Amino acid sequence: MTTPFPASIRSRPVYGVLVPQPGTAHLVVADGQGGAAVIDMFGRAGDAPLMLARSHIIHMPGPDGTDMTAGLLALGAAQFHRSPTIAAALPRLQKVLTDAHMGLQVYLAGTEGLIGQVRQQAMLAGIPWQAVQAEHRGSTVRRVQCVHCKGITENVRTDPFQCSHCGLNLFVRDHYSRRIAAFQGVNIDAEDPGLVPPPVVRFG
Amino acid sequence: MSVGAPKIPVTVAEVVTVNPLVKRFRFVRRDGAPMMPFSGGAHVVVEMDDHGTRRLNPYSLMSAPDDTSGYEISVRRDDAGRGGSVYLHAHVTPGMQMVLSAPVNLFPTDTRARKHLLIAGGIGITPFVAQMAGLQARAGRFELHYSARSRELAAYADTLTALYGDRVNVYLDDQNQQINLGTLLQGQPLGTHLYVCGPKGMIAWVRTTAQTLGWPETAVHSEEFLAPPVGLPFTVQLAASGKTITVGPAQSLLEAIEAAGVVAPYLCRGGACGECETGVLACDGAILHNDHWLTDDQKVGQTRIMPCVSRFAGATLVLDR
Questions:
Q1: Among candidate residues B106, B109, B123, the one with its CA nearest the CA of residue B194
Q2: Cβ of B191 under 8 Å from any chain A Cβ?
Q3: To 10 degrees, what angle do helices A86-99 and A112-124 make?
Q4: pLDDT band with cut points at 50, 70 and 90 for residue B5
Q5: Counting beta carbons within 10 angstroms of the beta carbon of residue A195, is it exposed (0 to 12), middle (13 to 18) or buried (19 or more)?
Q6: Domain end marker among A136, A167, A192
Q7: CATH number of the domain bearing residue A129
Q8: Are residues A115 and A170 in the same domain?
Q9: So what's the ipTM on this one?
Q10: A9-51: per-residue pLDDT in tens?
Q11: CA-based diameter of chain B, in Å?
């Protein structure tokens, strides 16, 4: 099922449910439990065989290790690629987007880190961000940029957390950057160094 | 223009017959000052005093956007229209003094696009003439597909071909040439934006084809100015002004409001921009919505009206104006 999120500020991304769209090609990228959203979407397609014949599915395990390769392979898409990580899939994605033509539909499912980073690549390739569909499934861990050193920490679970690059204690905001594909983390003990509230697991 | 927005007093500097249906008009400022630069796709509203009838029609600017020495528009004569184009063709001569609105752009190129695919039908070429000049100046990648009835009526086809070479593709109806739209749209690189200006049928054809082929709505742009349709006369109460007015058969509701001395906002006067949107306080009858602005739900709700192009049939219409 899609992940419910509490109401937040306007810059916090919201996610929908993947809907099959008319298109000359379909690029589908999912991590972990996002694979189930992809299987559900093809189940709703009016002409699933035609859509699958034009589909390229890329999958990688989620942060908790969930791997849905078997179920996605069974769909029988024109192309299926399993990647060990999101980072390892980016060069392939860039190549696919470089060669693509208008009419390509992009569907993303899984964690916010996956959705944000692939949407970022799609935007860099010239696709309007509104045209990229995304459905959240699985882990809610966050990809957070330290606004001070600019380093990005993946799979953040607690708030506050310690920046994996500069070591500052960061408060995790809902303020999100589409350009950077990350939430913003701000030093929490700037005025009173050392006065850091105990970390709470907010993202699971 | 909106109420209070600047107007430009101009002199007609030049009138050129482009073909049997199209004339080009060049305007310069009466005070000799430079015109303000504009962006390709912008239009001005030309104010006309047609022997006592006030006409305000929008026309796309087609001079180079950075040419501040004057503005140029091209006008296709529409003998079945309400009279603005016929007036311009028959009565406007060099030396005449006229008034233009400041330019407004409802049809700009999207600077994020990797490539601009321009599709024009007939006189719909005019905004693209300025857009291409603007794109050329900043090395934008573009391609024009221009459809016209015949070589004679394909205004500016030769000039544009001379300027832009094989980026200009001309299709002539009388040679049975037609844009192969499906192939054209499917071959475009990712990041292309599509722009269409021309007759209503052509805009619908291009929009529908693009949607079927999976083009994102935000990458497809069109512009069509509607002439206010003629219709049966009707009566309207203006609640805020305390006036009751009658709209004549060839008059728009906006023109009738203005004729009654009531100040009302407007921009494009063609149902596209949304500036004149007015609240409906009471409605016993049917609003004849003719605009591209209100949503279908708003149109059914009959609580908003666009007086530049929409009319009314029924017993009572009260506007918040």
A1: B109
A2: yes
A3: 30
A4: low
A5: exposed
A6: A136
A7: 3.40.50.80
A8: no
A9: 0.88
A10: 988 999 999 999 999 999 999 999 999 999 999 999 999 999 9
A11: 60
Residues of A in contact with B143 (CB under 8 A): none
pLDDT at A11: 87
Give the separation between CA B158 and CA B165, rounded to whole angstroms: 10
- Tell me which chain B residue has its CA closest to the CA of residue A23: B214
Q: Are B245 and B313 in contact (CB under 8 A)?
A: no
Domains and CATH numbers, chain B: 7-101 (2.40.30.10), 115-223 (3.40.50.80), 234-319 (3.10.20.30)
* B187-197 burial code (b ≥16 CB/10 A, e <16): ebbbbbbbbbb
A48 falls within a domain: yes
Give the pLDDT confidence of B19-53 residue by residue, as tens digits.
999 999 999 999 999 999 999 999 999 999 999 88
Contact across the interface for B213 and A21, Cβ inside 8 Å: no
pLDDT one-digit tens code per residue, A66-114: 999 999 999 999 999 999 999 999 999 999 999 999 999 999 999 999 9
User: Same domain, yes or no, for A32 and A130?
Assistant: yes
Using DSSP bridges, classify how beta strands B168-172 and B192-197 pair: parallel, antiparallel or unpaired.
unpaired
Question: Which pLDDT belongs to residue B3?
Answer: 52
Same domain, A45 and A104: yes
Tell whether A10 is covered by a domain: no
- The encoded tokens of residue A136 equal 């959240």
> Does any CB of chain A come closer than 8 Å to the CB of residue B215?
yes
Instruction: Name the minimum distance, in Å, from the CA of B196 to any CA of chain A.
Output: 16
CA dist., res. A170 & res. A184, Å (int): 9
pLDDT tens for B49-85 read 999 888 899 999 999 999 999 999 999 999 988 889 9
Are residues A81 and A123 located together in one domain of the fold? yes
Domain boundary among A136, A157, A184: A136
* Nearest CB partner across the interface for A127, out of B186, B188, B191: B191
State the nearest Cα–Cα gap between A144 and chain B, in angstroms.
26
